[in-house]
Amino acid sequence: MRNYGSKHHIGAGIAVAVVLLLAILLLSVQIQNVTVTGSGRYSAKQVEDLLFTGRWGKNSAHAYFSDRFRPHIQIPFVEDYKIVFHNPLDVEVIIYEKSIVGYVSYMSSFMYFDKDGIVVESSGSRLPGVPWITGMEFGRIVLHRALPVYDKNIFEEILNLTQQLSVYDIAVDRIQYDSHGQATLFIGKMEVTMGDHTDIDGKISTLNDILKAQPQLTQISGTMKLELFPNSSLGSKSELIDQMIMGESIITIADGAFYADYGVPDLGILYGPFFFDNWDEVWKLIDSDWYQTECGKLADKGLTVLASNWVYGERELMTKTKVVTPADIKGKKIRLANSQIYVEGFNALGATAVPMALGDVYTSLQNGTLDGVENPLSTLYGQSFQEVSKNILMTGHILNFTTWCIGTDYLNTLTPEQQELLYKTGEEAGLYNNEQQAAANDDYRKKLEEAGVTFTELTDEERALWKEASLSFYEKGSQFGWSDGLYDTVKAAMQ
Hints:
Blueprint: H1 2-28, E1 33-37, H2 44-51, H3 60-69, E2 78-87, E3 90-97, E4 102-106, E5 109-113, E6 119-123, E7 132-134, H4 152-167, E8 174-177, E9 183-187, E10 190-195, H5 200-213, H6 237-245, E11 251-254, H7 256-261, H8 279-286, H9 289-300, E12 303-319, H10 326-329, E13 333-336, H11 340-348, E14 352-355, H12 361-367, E15 372-375, H13 377-382, E16 391-407, H14 408-411, H15 416-450, E17 454-457, H16 460-474, H17 477-480, H18 486-493
Parallel strand pairs: 1-3, 7-8, 13-14, 13-15, 16-17
Antiparallel strand pairs: 2-3, 4-5, 5-6, 8-9, 9-10, 11-16, 12-15, 12-16
Helix pairs in contact: 11-16
């Protein structure tokens, strides 16, 4: 019995010694390397300093048991974190950040909310890369509850807008809403007027393309604000031009077919059917003395051309029934823009031209008021005409370059610096537009084909028939007020 007791005490002593040794070893092992993943708001050093503090902060055993059995440290803008021990010396901290899409100012603090509208954080500092929302009315804010916005519709639009910005990784400093729910983005020194929520996805996509093409815009401050009014929302082209001549602050794209109706008739010849054979002829003409002289005449009539390098596109013919030759179009009602040149040009081809605002064409095709419409593929698709008309003849009857123009009287109210900026940006926008047109044309054709549209290409013989039919138009020069010998003069200028 004595021997047994002695052995028992010895064994117990050894066990205690082993435990003590292990404890000493554990307490002496220190974390040597800390890596951090998932953190976009804190550096690795900042995370390490927050989590592994105090005398025992980097002790491996202490850190392990603290992570497993104690409440995690609350870190602003962090939902939670996880410490992974790869070995006693090397650990990884995985950060799970809160999903934040914007913030509002409230009682000297900034209240951050997530994609669901829940207020997830309160801070005295602004978080880079998160937009500040202003102009939105709300009640008493409680942390971890929904932001109490009075206008729920506006808030839904804000959440949609901020998520779209996040998709395209566009960093916005502030989003301002006015009393009508119109949004303005502040990006660096740039202001972007978004208007209402209509087609917000398309607007953000366009903005993304612009910023990629011209990233310097965010660093340029200006004194002018340009606001877009698409789809004839301010009226027809003729109505806009009338307003511009009267001094309204409007810029629009327009071409010589309209200018011919406003006192410079010779420009109209450029928009007759089958006048240009290729785009090189177009650009040579724009650089010619003849063209510059005509633009000077236009300025005297109240309209100033800011840029002429805009490709509107090759105008094609879309019809409800298949058309191949001029005989097929005889008597068919084809929509044209409200310009004498356009109208008479298509009448010369045998059609019955119907002037009409673009916004009214869809319904007219649908109910049979129209048999067809002509425009570039981008416009045909953009207006959804493929839903009500299934045939396109690739005539390219007009190589349609257009111009960026402004009322002369309004232009003269601007400073020389502002005027120069409009000229410069008009040219730059034209180049950007042309790149987009070239890249998108094949895509529009593919989309139209997928929508069930049948395309017909002209043979050389068929094109010759169309060009022959168009010649009667150019014989009507006196009817349009053209200068004597204009056809030959312009053809020589483009050589």
